[in-house]
Amino acid sequence: xxxxxxxxxxxxxxxxxxxxxxxxxxxxxxxxxxxxxxxxxxxxxxxxxxxxxxxxxxxxxxxxxxxxxxxxxxxxxxxxxxxxxxxxxxxxxxxxxxxxxxxxxxxxxxxxxxxxxxxxxxxxxxxxxxxxxxxxxxxxxxxxxxxxxxxxxxxxxxxxxxxxxxxxxxxxxxxxxxxxxxxxxxxxxxxxxxxxxxxxxxxxxxxxxxxxxxxxxxxxxxxxxxxxxxxxxxxxxxxxxxxxxxxxxxxxxxxxxxxxxxxxxxxxxxxxxxxxxxxxxxxxxxxxxxxxxxxxxxxxxxxxxxxxxxxxxxxxxxxxxxxxxxxxxxxxxxxxxxxxxxxxxxxxxxxxxxxxxxxxxxxxxxxxxxxxxxxxxxxxxxxxxxxxxxxxxxxxxxxxxxxxxxxxxxxxxxxxxxxxxxxxxxxxxxxxxxxxxxxxxxxxxxxxxxxxxxxxxxxxxxxxxxxxxxxxxxxxx
Length: 477
Known about the structure:
Strand content: 5-15%
Radius of gyration: 23 Å
Strand order of the largest sheet: 4-5-8-9
CATH class of the largest domain: Alpha Beta
Number of helices: 20
Order of helices and strands: HEHHHHHHHEHEHHHEHHEEHEHEHEHHH
Helix content: 40-55%
Largest sheet: 4 strands, parallel
CATH architecture of the largest domain: Alpha-Beta Barrel
Number of strands: 9
CATH superfamily of the largest domain: Metal-dependent hydrolases
Structural class: mainly alpha
């Protein structure tokens, strides 16, 4: 095997035209479009940043705690390359400095495994654009880069609130349990020194999965915090409505749902009540639990028409695929694996009831590219309630985003899409992810302009709308 010649201290210098089209004529238009939107505010309607980060404004502990340990995009590929998750700090709590350096060194020593991935792209933008790192991470430079970033993190301008302002975030949505009292959100809103906007998102998945081991305890907790007896179907519905009202009062604008499928088959009232009683008693079969969840999802759509919360669906993931890792490290540790998707028949009961309701906004995400042009775009091209969610999770990569945009636009246009969704726990990756989307959309629009399918003034108007107009309208922000 021939090895490449060694380079001394390779530089980390993201190209100013990164991700823009290679054709010079198209690139010229794309540059103009991108320049017009690059500094627009970030509207982030779906993410997983802990609001306590901004409430307490505590300095980030170290580079590994900020950029490695909490980001399953990073840890999963390192794990696939032979790095144990505990070395990366997963499931361990705060690391001492030697262990933090070891986690960081593992990233730098395996920098090559991220070649061609969006993770590599985001990390480069973070290191160079936020922290001023100008040397490529490697085994030889790991300690140097760690020291540089660590020193920056000790400065006031690198604390969470300062970075929120620097990133140009206008609104940031979190993801929250229905039983959460939202005290952190309330305290942040009441803080006179805070000028940003952070809103909660209602995430009821665990309360709909009657077949899960902890479901009965979860529903009992729901009863406790809502003050509504959940011993009956109608009590469960009332408790959910109470908690949705609580979230609305604290600024929530959407609900977030992720199950194995999005079937919404209704149950007859008598059967619905019987199955719910069996679930509460712990005697419901797996098939009955699934049927109850599907009916509950239909009920959630009904609630959305009444309280106005945008309903987002991102189905088709086998959570915790590797049981030993799940048991040791917990959920969201990099081994959730996509499943095939189906929306057309699955959502028909919901859409026949509520698809033309003026108060429903339904955003459909997928991890299955085969359904985008076949199902999602046609659904959004007819139902006024339906929008196609931006490429998400495993599809939020440059080439996948380009394929998604082409697949959706020809049937549903630009206006029936959600705007970009960063869906991240990694706070410092937010601007890199949004900038990536802006560059890719500028390129897609520029191609239409140079093919004389769109005038440049229309392309500019669309580029701005995709950045701020779509998320504001679709999520009521």
